[in-house]
Amino acid sequence: MVQIVPSILSADFARLGEDIAKVEQGGAQMLHIDIMDGHFVPNLTFGPPVVESIRKISNLIFDVHLMIEDPDTYAPMFIAAGANQVSVHQEACRHLDRTLHMIQQHGAKAGVVINPATPVNTLDDVLDFVDFVLVMSVNPGFGGQAFIPNSLNKIRQLAALREQRRLNFSIEIDGGVSTKNAADIVRAGCDWLVAGSFVFHSANPAATVKELQQTASEALLARV
Fold this sequence. Notes:
By secondary structure, the chain is α/β, with parallel strands linked by helices. The chain has helices spanning 16-25, 48-55, 71-81, 96-105, 151-164, 182-188, 197-200, 205-223; strands spanning 3-6, 30-36, 61-67, 85-89, 109-114, 132-136, 170-174, 192-195. Helices cover 37% and strands 19% of the residues.
């Protein structure tokens, strides 16, 4: 099943609990949480205390995306705060193999992220054990950006590698996802679609999640 993963980067921070409840009502099973440090990307967002706070009000799978320069130090903190899975950027990790294994050893699923200008082949040596790969379809740092079409080619490459090597990692995409491109994304081979502003800036986030899920599910049938 394809998952729609709402990103709280676009939620109303003053009503965060209410916004999370809305996407839960829409059927979301995962929640995307962008962590930014103002160094790796030009923005600041949440720390572990925020994740710990929303864990108290939600049983969703917390998909924590570390857009930070020092993931080795902070990944364990976010796992302790309630993250179920943690993704780190290939571009930020000096020792990617070690970082991904460390996340798994702390009890979370480990994901690796590639920016729009980073080729898929930089991940060749970690695909055998990584739990998921996140393709950035915008340049990281801010919500509301336009989808970069070449991201579909990266999804196709990853899906082909997964099949050729008989691997089990999931494929995720983040940035500019909407009902206009969700079907193409799923047909390319993507499993998890992160959607931020399209969901939370809509008049009815619950209905928007359902609409995206319907679009993705129909596209999945065509892919199969």
